[in-house]
Amino acid sequence: MTEPLTGEAQRFATVNSLMSAIAGTGRDARRGGYSRPVYSTAELELREWFVAEATARGLAVERDSNGIIWAWWDLPDRHDGGAPAGADPRAGALVTGSHLDSVPGGGPFDGPLGVASALAAFDVLKMREAAGTLARKRAFAIAVFPEEEGSAFGVACLGSRLLTGAIDPVRALNLTDERGTTFADASRAHGLDPDAMGRDELALSRIGDFVELHVEQGRGLNTEDYTDAAGRGPAVAVASSILGHGRWRLSFTGQGNHAGTTLMTDRADPMIAASQAVLAIRSIGAAQPGARATVGRLEPVPGGTNVIASRVDLWIDVRHPDDAVTAALVTRILEQAQQIAALEGCAAELTEESLSATVHFDASLTRALTASAARTVPGTPALATGAGHDAGVLASEVPTGMLFVRNPSGISHSPEEYVEDDDAATGTAALADALGDLL
Ligand code: GLV
Ligand code: MN
Ligand code: MN
Ligand code: MN
Fold first, then answer.
1. CA–CA dist 140, 209 (Å, integer)
2. What family name appears in the similarity comment (predicted)?
């Protein structure tokens, strides 16, 4: 019989009950897994869940002008080292958190694990403060960022990009979802003032350090560099960097026409050009060491079985640690796309939708996270990741670091994404220790 968990171990395990509480929200019967795009019923339900959990813990919850939710654990007045009179008592706070939205048909952990572990880690920190083993020098907050995946409006990390000014708010407000609703209208419908969106100096000045815990999204911790004799990798890693990455829309235009009356020799079919481009993009990516080039979405217009499309849009995701190589790959893709299009009597046009430079996380915060995490997971490794995160956007403004929790499937952005309960609890313990050391 296993011993019942007590004290801090029990609080760390809270991460799993929090995750279970939201396991029914946003399930996608058609795709499998979860579809929780920003402002969907599912995502709004998760936000309500977060607000209720944070409020029940005595945290002061507010939503800022960019739609980011903050749950504040303010500094009690009695502590020395608090803010000087008249200054913002939240300035330079320690902030942790992640996102609640998902890709279409995603896994349960990408995003919510960082939010649930933050709540569970807070429980432990509060317990330590009550026990007199933690004396905070600054305020603490849990942040929940909207539209991290860019699944609805096309640009990932939209909340943190608005906060930092990494996206022009006018451009952000004009982004549209698949129904043609602008981000401005969607934001207004959810109680935000579009005119107030954009770089927020006050909110930024309140982030002293940002730490995001996240499910590991590749095979990073399952490779033989890290696994033991039983083939098991460590439960936790610290992030070293994020590959530079971007999204481009490649549009092929041709002649829309009748599938039955148009001879095969008379066609200017953008679907044919797009199909060849998909293969060319795979070859260009495969020929470049360290590169990833993906077409995960393709839309024929108008999209009918008996209709030769007049246009096909496809979206390309390109990533590489060297930003100059990413740029060169995209140039090569456009050149090939134009050649392919010409042979089919079509035209090709490329539009950049977002671009993020390679991020190297703050060296001293990363060292501190590694030292703290090593108390729970000796020899905590450092991993680069190919996935984008709000932490990567914030890294240009404030010291930022990340913890990754082992994903035995090595699969993410898919229903097969997985985290074992024990690893989630271990990750939460590492997060709580790291936050406690930084507070
Ligand atoms: C977001 O998760 C991304 O890396 O695309
Ligand atoms: Mn993701
Ligand atoms: Mn994520
Ligand atoms: Mn992401």
1. 10
2. Belongs to the peptidase M20 family.
Q: Which two tokens stand for residue 313?
A: 């849009």
Chain position carrying tokens 């209709």: 307
Q: Is the CB of 43 under 6 A from ligand 1?
A: no
Pair (295, 321) in one structural domain: yes
CB 149 near ligand 1, within 6 Å = yes
Which domain range does residue 342 map to? 244-356
Give Cα separations from 61 to 50, 77, 164, 362 (angstroms).
10, 19, 21, 28
Same domain flag for 305 and 374: no
155 lines ligand 1 (CB under 6 A): no
pTM: 0.93
Q: What is the mean pLDDT of each run of 10 residues along the chain (439 residues)?
A: 69 92 98 98 98 98 98 78 73 98 98 98 96 95 98 97 98 97 98 98 98 95 87 94 97 98 98 98 98 97 98 98 97 98 98 95 97 94 95 98 96 97 96 97
Contacts (Cβ under 8 Å, ≥6 apart) of 32: 105, 415
Neighbours of ion ligand 2 (CB under 5 A): 110
Same domain, 345 and 256: yes
* Reported ipTM: 0.93
Count of domains for the chain: 2
Cα gap 268→308, rounded to integer Å: 9
